[in-house]
Write a structure and sequence with these properties.
The chain has helices spanning 116-121, 128-136, 142-150, 169-179, 204-219, 232-249, 256-267, 313-328, 402-417, and strands spanning 2-6, 16-22, 29-30, 35-40, 45-49, 54-59, 66-68, 72-78, 222-230, 275-278, 281-284, 290-292, 294-295, 300-301, 304-305, 342-346, 365-379, 382-396. By secondary structure, the protein is of the alpha+beta class.
């Protein structure tokens, strides 16, 4: 019988993805759990497994096509009678119905593939046709082609250093770096072979991120409150113990696990901070799934450390290290990026002294962490030097009032400034 393959749920708040490549070709035999197709979302790339044994009969959509969760994307021939997958509606966090547009994801006619007509049909500027032709003309991996499309690069211009002269990922990254580097000693420098202006289409992951940021920024009334913490006690404690902890437990602890614990302690007094806002309801969480923003090459992803309230400081540190490594090597699962209740973004690791982070809907708050800097401050009527950390807490003003957010952040800082009152209980 014919079995229709649909796009399954791709993670919290994800309503669509882009077909990267088909892993099973038409006419190819398929076993249950074999990966059928790779789909790219703004968060991760996922491989969709086959639910049955059978044969891939027909692809209904081609690579680079945007498909919504629940859309039909392929037809398989399977043995016997099986329950047909059902299309379904997706409710984004704003509560509005979004119906999969199966009728709108028809593959382009074969004769148009790689032509300007095809690109205009897909809503892309006709000038990209030449770039697409150059990408397809060169032997390369899917990730190389993806990078080339995102950065508008004709691969025929690159000299491949891979096996057999293939263009590698490093070749593309070096080209991008060269193209965006300016020699300040030579004011007459121009990019080799480039026009005075470079037009870079916002596509792929970058485009999806842009859409989500616009939606969050213009749907949620953001307010950011700032405060600073004197990290003297915590810096001293960490400096005294970090090497011993690493030697004994195999993890080099950073300041983020301490901040995660301080969030939990402070939110016990101000619980609405740890919540999601869906429809007309505020869902106040009794558990803490803390998202940790990780910057990648040209995107951002937020892995989630689950049930931090049940974990020790060292367990949180291990989870942060493991998920950070997975994020940087593109090995995160949907489960590992879903279910967040509040998020942390650490701009300080790149030297930032302040920022106004954007909330990850449907969460209602995100804590911006910045660089610890030694500053002159007044203590006991005297000017002294102290390690100061600036925080920026963005909150959803629809459900969180300013006074509530300010008090939460001040309470969080009090825990960080007095670690001896709680550290021994959470290590």
């Amino acid at each position: 019988m014919e079995y229709k393959v649909i796009v399954p749920p791709l993670g919290e708040s994800v309503v669509e993805g882009t077909i990267v490549k088909w892993l099973k070709q038409e006419g190819e035999k398929v076993k249950v759990d074999d990966p059928l197709v790779e789909i790219m979302t703004d968060k991760i790339n996922v491989e969709i497994p086959s639910p049955h044994d059978g044969v891939m009969k027909k692809h209904l959509v081609g690579p680079d096509t945007v498909v919504e969760v629940g859309a039909e994307i392929a037809v398989m021939e399977v043995e016997g009678e099986v329950e047909q997958a059902k299309t379904f509606q997706v409710k984004p966090e704003d509560g509005r119905e979004r119906i999969p547009r199966e009728q709108e994801v028809k593959p382009a006619p074969e004769e148009f593939v790689g032509t300007a007509v095809h690109h205009e049909h897909m809503g892309i500027h006709a000038d990209e046709a030449a770039i697409e032709k150059g990408i397809k003309a060169v032997k390369s991996s899917p990730i190389v082609r993806r990078l080339a499309r995102e950065h508008f690069i004709d691969l025929r211009k690159l000299t491949g250093t891979g096996k057999g002269g293939r263009v590698s990922k490093n070749d593309v990254l070096k080209y991008i770096e060269m193209r965006h580097s300016v020699d300040i000693i030579r004011p007459d420098f121009i990019f080799p072979g480039a026009e005075p202006e470079e037009i870079i289409p916002v596509t792929g992951v970058r485009k999806v991120i842009a859409e989500h940021m616009v939606k969050s920024a213009f749907t949620i009334p953001h307010v950011t409150t700032f405060d600073e913490a004197d990290m003297s006690a915590l810096v001293t404690w960490r400096r005294r113990n970090v090497d011993k902890i690493e030697e004994r437990h195999g993890v080099r602890i950073t300041y983020l696990p301490f901040i995660a614990k301080a969030i939990i302690f402070a939110a016990r007094e101000f619980p609405w901070i740890n919540a999601t806002f869906v429809g007309d309801n505020l869902h106040v969480k009794k558990y803490f799934n803390i998202g940790m923003a990780v910057a990648r090459e040209n995107s951002l992803i937020v892995p989630v450390i689950k049930h931090c309230e049940q974990k020790s400081l060292l367990e949180i540190a291990r989870d942060m290290k493991e998920l950070g490594d997975k994020a940087n090597t593109d090995r995160l699962t949907i489960e590992e990026i879903s279910g967040g209740t509040i998020s942390i973004t650490n701009a300080g690791v790149m030297g930032a002294l302040g920022s106004t982070p954007i909330i990850a809907a449907p969460q209602v708050a995100i804590l911006g962490v910045h660089k610890i800097v030694e500053k002159p401050v007044v203590r006991g009527g005297e000017i002294v030097i102290r390690p100061i950390l600036n925080f920026g807490l963005s909150f959803d003003h629809r459900v969180i009032d300013g006074g509530y957010a300010v008090q939460f952040l001040r309470r969080l800082i009090e825990f960080l400034e007095d670690p001896d009152s709680w550290l021994l209980n959470v290590i």
